[in-house]
Amino acid sequence: MGKIKKIHVVIVSGILLALALMFHFLDMEIWKNTALIAGTFVAGYSIAKKAIQSVMMKAFSIELLVTIAVIGALIIGEYVESAAVTFLFLFGAYLEARTLEKTRSSLRTLMDMAPLEATVLKNGERVIMPVGDIEEGDRILIQSGEKVAIDGRIVSGQAFINEAAITGESVPASKKLKDQVFSGTIIDNGYVEVEAEKVGDDTTFAKIIELVEEAQEAKAKTQKFLERFANVYTPAILVLSVLVFVFTQNVELAITFLVIACPGALVISAPVSLVAGIGNGAKNGTLLKGGEVMENLAKIDVIVFDKTGTLTKGKPAVTGMKAFGMKEEELLKITAEAEIISEHHLGRTIVNEAEHRGLTLTNEPEDFTVEKGHGLYATVAGKSVVIGNRKLLSKNGIQLPGNIESYAIQEEKNGNTAIFVGIDNKLAGVISIADQIRAKAADAIRQLKAAGVKHTVMLTGDNTHTAEKVARQLGIDQVFAEMLPEDKVNHIKRLKAEGYRVAMVGDGINDAPAIALADVGMAMGAAGTDAAMETADVVLMADKLSKIPYAYSLAKATVRNMKQNMFFAVGTVALLLVGVLLGKIFLASGMLIHELSVLIVILNAIRLVRYKQREQGEVKEMRAAIPETK
Amino acid sequence: MTTIKFQLEPLTCPSCIKKIEGKLGKMNGVEEAKVMFNSSKVKATFNTEQVTAEELQEIIEKLGYPVLSSKTA
């Protein structure tokens, strides 16, 4: 109701102004003044009300200044001035509200994607329930065109799901049994039954909204500076206007000075850009946690990537095997049995391969010990098994014959990770595992460079040969291989100590310490992993490398936009003040320019809502030359 | 302690922040009051024994900002 009221007041006071103009041409002086005074009171009422409210709260407000100025104008009989100022002020505020809405529209469109109800299977019956009443463990039925109301796993059916609300990708993703689905996504085609795992405020979707709302309030350094500036500026202007009065003895001039100097455009110049930028990111599955993150990201000159799961798909597969003194199957079986309780992704790969080949793992490992970053020891069926890299084997006195060493190096040069297996102090075999490079990884690196990143670095726990091969394919400047998790942290520390501004990209789980330490920590493919969403400064919901150059370019564009706005706002106020002092600008014309400057600042920010990254050259489908997995 | 979020009409002037935060913050039983300018929300943490959500809403509306909806966390 309030909004309708406001626009009505604006319209009525506008009509009264128009009437006054008509009476002016008809030489009906009394009617003209009556219309102007009526207009002043119609529009002035709500301004004066707010002014009084803020005075009672002991807060200083622009409404108070305007009210004083208008009362002053009425006393000295400047009715045109008083009516025009109140009208412009209200109309300006109305337009600002409307346009500000636009800068905030991205988040609103996201929020509108939240479903309100869902079909739940209760005691064998389909019940339509409000989203708030759904509980964990409920079975939700979702058809084509319907929205998913909870986070959960598919227990039956399959579908193409549009996940734009989460990842910003509008190409539907194919989902089948056991796949995860997210609240806010839409079934494009198909039918699924989902068991609810997270409901209400715990869903990834709800967390995104929450995170973006908080991010919009997290102030940028520029903003904090502006606020400090305003704290000095406002009293300074008060003092100056008193001085103006003392020297000129002109009340009108002093009040005009005071009203015009009000830093309206200045105060909103930075926030509007940030809100628009953050909103744009959110709509594209790229969450930037606030103004400071935006500024830091825009200044990054080194970007560090974790290899596995970031530059590569993180879904390694066994690509080759060589057994000595036993059959391949036997080697795989015993290795898998040792690895069965391992959480290491390479260990999982070996276990998966064994299961894939239909081997039944019968023996349970005993004395299972992990040598972090190197491998593990276990006893399987009475045999002592060592699985890991060269270092671990030689540490245990197991020597690699020359021909096997050259075989392993060849495998590594082909992009594989060679895993050595020693049984009862003798080398039993080498298992090769490879991970595929992500599609468009090289494009992403190139775009980052084109956008201004000076140096790209890759860190990996993997062997040097594989690491170098991947780096060469992607055009990464520097590689550090065979790194332990703490080496990664130290490396970030060193880069920072050397004065670089460092961004670290990873999956947000294994490399959380490095991500937390970097100037800007980015987690990729974070949908569904709360830890990654919490740790990282920049959260990329989709598992897509192209979002990294997007986030970087968006941050740069946002910071640029913010600066444009600030310069424009400061410049306008400075020019206006000079104009007022030189007697070229009066209250009404000053108010008009002032309101216009605020609108221009907002309109400039709206450009960011529509911001899209420029395509840089031909985007070629980059296929990894690393052996294809089956 | 309860946390509540009030959704207001779009806030346009940053000076409203001080007004709302100041007034709510001074109320008995209110632990913290924060205005989220860009999402036009007021987040308040308060002690339910000393003050009610309705009372908070009343104050915000008295200051001249109609509350559209509220949500208890």
Automatic annotation (TrEMBL), chain A:
A GO molecular-function term, please?
P-type cadmium transporter activity
- Please tell me where this protein is predominantly located: membrane
Domain called P-type ATPase A: residue spans: 113-213
Enzyme Commission code? 7.2.2.21
Q: Pfam families annotated for this entry?
A: E1-E2_ATPase, Hydrolase
Where, subcellularly, is it found?
A: Cell membrane
Spell out the SUPFAM superfamilies in the cross-references. Answer: Calcium ATPase, transduction domain A (SSF81653), Calcium ATPase, transmembrane domain M (SSF81665), HAD-like (SSF56784)
Q: How does it sit in the membrane?
A: Multi-pass membrane protein
CDD domains cross-referenced by the UniProt entry: P-type_ATPase_HM
Q: Name one cellular component (GO) term.
A: plasma membrane
What PROSITE patterns is this protein classified in?
Answer: ATPASE_E1_E2, COF_2
Membrane-spanning residues: 7-24, 60-77, 229-247, 253-279, 566-586, 592-609
Keywords on record:
ATP-binding, Cadmium, Cell membrane, Ion transport, Membrane, Metal-binding, Nucleotide-binding, Phosphoprotein, Translocase, Transmembrane, Transmembrane helix, Transport
Q: Provide the reaction this enzyme catalyses.
A: Cd(2+)(in) + ATP + H2O = Cd(2+)(out) + ADP + phosphate + H(+)
Q: Which InterPro entries match?
A: ATPase_P-typ_cyto_dom_N (IPR023299), ATPase_P-typ_P_site (IPR018303), ATPase_P-typ_TM_dom_sf (IPR023298), ATPase_P-typ_transduc_dom_A_sf (IPR008250), ATPase_P-type_domA (IPR059000), Cation_Transport_ATPase_IB (IPR051014), HAD-like_sf (IPR036412), HAD_sf (IPR023214)
Query: Which NCBIfam families would you find in this protein's record?
Result: ATPase-IB1_Cu (TIGR01511), ATPase-IB_hvy (TIGR01525), ATPase_P-type (TIGR01494)
Into which family does the record put it? Belongs to the cation transport ATPase (P-type) (TC 3.A.3) family. Type IB subfamily.
This chain belongs to the protein called Cd(2+)-exporting ATPase
UniProtKB/TrEMBL annotation, chain B:
Molecular function terms, GO-annotated: metal ion binding
Database matches in Gene3D superfamilies: 3.30.70.100
Q: Which Pfam families match?
A: HMA (PF00403)
Q: Which residues form the HMA domain?
A: 2-68
Alphabetically sorted, this entry's keywords are:
Metal-binding
What is this protein identified as?
Heavy metal-binding protein
Originating organism? Virgibacillus profundi
